[in-house]
Amino acid sequence: MDTPLDAPALPKPAPQPWLALRLISIVGISLSLFQLYAAGLQPLGLFFQRPIHLGFVLVLSFLIYPVTGNSRPRGVLGWGIDGTLIAASIVAGAWVPVNIDVIANSIFPRQIDVWVGVFIVLLVMEAARRAVGLGMTVIAATFIVYAFAGRRGELPWLADWLPGILNHRGYSLERVASQMTLGAEGIFGIPLGVAATFIFVFVLFGAVLEVTGAGKFFIDLAYATTGRQRGGPAKAAIIASAGMGSISGSAIANVVTTGAFTIPLMKKLGYRPAQAGGIEAAASTGGQIMPPLMGAGAFLMSEFTQVPYLEIVLVSIFPAFLYFGAVYLLVHIAAVKLGLKGLPASELPLVRKVLAEGWHFLFPLVALVLLLMAGYSPMRVGFYAILSVVAAAAARALWTFAADRPTWDGLVTLTWNAVLKSLKALELGARNAVAVSMATAVAGIIVGVVGLTGLGLKFSAMMLALSQGNLFIALLLVIAASLILGMGLPVTASYIVLIILVGPALTAEFGVPLLVAHLVVFWYSQDSNVTPPVALAGFAGAAIAGSKPLETSIQAWKYAKGLYLIPLFMVYNDAIILGGPLPLILWNGALAIIALVAFAAMLEGFLWGPMPLWQRAAMLPAITAVFWPSLTVEAAGAAGLTLLLALNWYQSRDFHAASTG
Asked: Which of 18, 59, 167, 305 is the most buried (most CB within 10 A)?
């Protein structure tokens, strides 16, 4: 769908010869058909579904990303290495399902199972290095070394180098290999399980929508509704990214798809190149927190917290709208300050025409939401959503065919095109799932080591010591950790690692409710998309805008400030997530809106008109008061912000009178 549901700065696939392309197509289509079978026809047990899925993805990884890299053809030696790895991947995918009875009935693992487990770990790490990047593999290797670093482990001498709080007994090769591959706590644990079920189906759903033209529909609809407003293309970028994000959940994929249209138009209208790229990056990052899909986060969150997927989607709607509303307001303020106008009507599509040509793309999204509300599992919902896309696209094509003097040759052509598009969607879905599946598989290594060594509790103790029991400092530590992890990990993997390490501390030591803690960590895991020096979506926007990456990333960071403020509001005003009396919910919602409006005005020094420096300075303590866990302080902060914003509105009358006079 990161690309898949949450892609990092992925290595570019190398140009492939004919044979490799055909093999990729065959394996990719086979994987998608297997997933559809398991999702809609015959659910499989976890020790069948997950290993078989991993085997397919490993094969695809070694086919798509050759050992020789992008610069050289694979050659005989390259095919010899990758061919061996592909054969080993087939064995890795089949080993546990074929031997499940023996493995389940063995008190101690057989030596052959241990060695196969070692090879599976090595295969996963090498495939992740190629498909996700070196950072993920290095982190996983570090965790494995940590598991061995104890008096009873394979590397007892390393125990002397570990701080006292991080010391543990150490584990043998047999114990670590068993933990990683012979149970549900390592590679075949929850992260890969979610990727092999819910995530893949929705990745495929996004691929089917992409192949059938949904992306163009959402972009055209955004332009038709906002194009005439001030800074219309920038606002269209926000709406289109929200629409595309609800399908793909990928910041980088959103930038390269919607940005290809919006960034040139923003530049044409008068936005600076870095500003245009930054706006698109900030808007596209919101796609990963936008229901109903929210990247891979909502599925993982549901598994980790045992909160129904639909409930996570519902509580995420208001925060997502707050984020997009903040970006929209900042864009509007920038357009007013620059004196920008909208596009002329002659250059814009008509809403009526766009809906007439693509209304059927709304049907699958409506069906998806209704099926979730009906209580179907996310995997089954994804399966039926895919069928609804196919049915809607087929019905539209047949209607057009029947209305245009049908012929036998036309029917053959229509059928052939439908088959080709279906195969293309199946292959695209599998390709797009490779990175996120490999990320979750290697994240399983990290999760397995954390469970084996008790590192999560040790990390919680360290976090408590560093923050001195102060929740705000603890949240700053989470932000710092997420930014550092985001330099080498995709969003999904960063979220998994962070929640495993800091989640227990946030809930047990600082009293943050479980669901709120997960949402906060997931939101902060997005910041590597827009925060310098590593701003992956910002870099993608800079490439399209032709601007400097660092300057574009700074602009993206500015426009995406809601990514930091809204999670703070979730923590200190958790009624917007957990619910409560209606007056309290309305009060907290109003506080969030006024705080974000005031923050945008303070940041830009402008709302209805220019804002003097003293007003901007006065807003900072008032905004801080809104986040304070005291009703009296909150009310004082809200009153102060209302007064300052009203004063800006009153003063703006003279500004507008002078500008029009």
From this structure: 59
Sign of CA dihedral 74, 80, 85, 91: positive
Residue-level pLDDT at 3: 41
In this predicted structure, the answer to whether residue 258 has a pLDDT above a threshold of 80 is no
- Please give the structure tokens belonging to residue 91: 């064995």
Instruction: State the average pLDDT over residues 561-567.
Output: 85
Question: Which amino acid is present at 106?
Answer: S
Residues 370-379, mean pLDDT to the nearest whole number: 75
Let me know: does 266 contact 307? Beta carbons within 8 Å: no
Share of the chain above pLDDT 90, in %: 15
The residue with tokens 């990884």 is 61
Show which of 366, 401, 431 is a domain's final residue: 431
Task: Name the range with the highest mean pLDDT among 10-14, 275-279, 462-466.
Answer: 275-279
pLDDT at 477: 85
Q: Which of 326, 369, 307, 334 is nearest to 519 (CA)?
A: 307
35 exposure class (CB count in 10 Å sphere: 0-12, 13-18, 19+): buried
Alpha-carbon dihedral angle through residues 127, 132, 135, 136, given to the nearest 10 degrees: -70
The number of domains in the chain is 2
* 537 domain residue, yes or no: no
Output the pTM of the full model: 0.73
Structural domain that includes position 404:
192-431
Burial class for 214, CB neighbours closer than 10 Å (0-12, 13-18, 19+)? buried
**461 contacts 482 by C-beta, under 8 angstroms:** no
Q: Is residue 322 part of a domain?
A: yes
- What residue type is 54 in one-letter code? L
- Of the candidates 262, 248, 252, 263, which has an alpha carbon nearest to the alpha carbon of residue 215? 248
Whether 331 contacts 238, CB under 8 Å: yes
**Domain's final residue, options 396, 431, 466:** 431
DSSP 8-state symbol, 606: B
> Is position 145 within any domain?
no
Which DSSP symbol is given to 506?
I
The two structure tokens encoding residue 510: 């600082």
Token digits for 396?
């539209």
Residue 597 within any structural domain of the chain: yes
Judge whether 48 and 97 are in contact, CB under 8 Å. Answer: yes
**Res 4 pLDDT > 60:** no
**Residue 14 pLDDT grade (very low, low, confident, very high; cuts 50, 70, 90):** low
CA max distance for the chain: 88
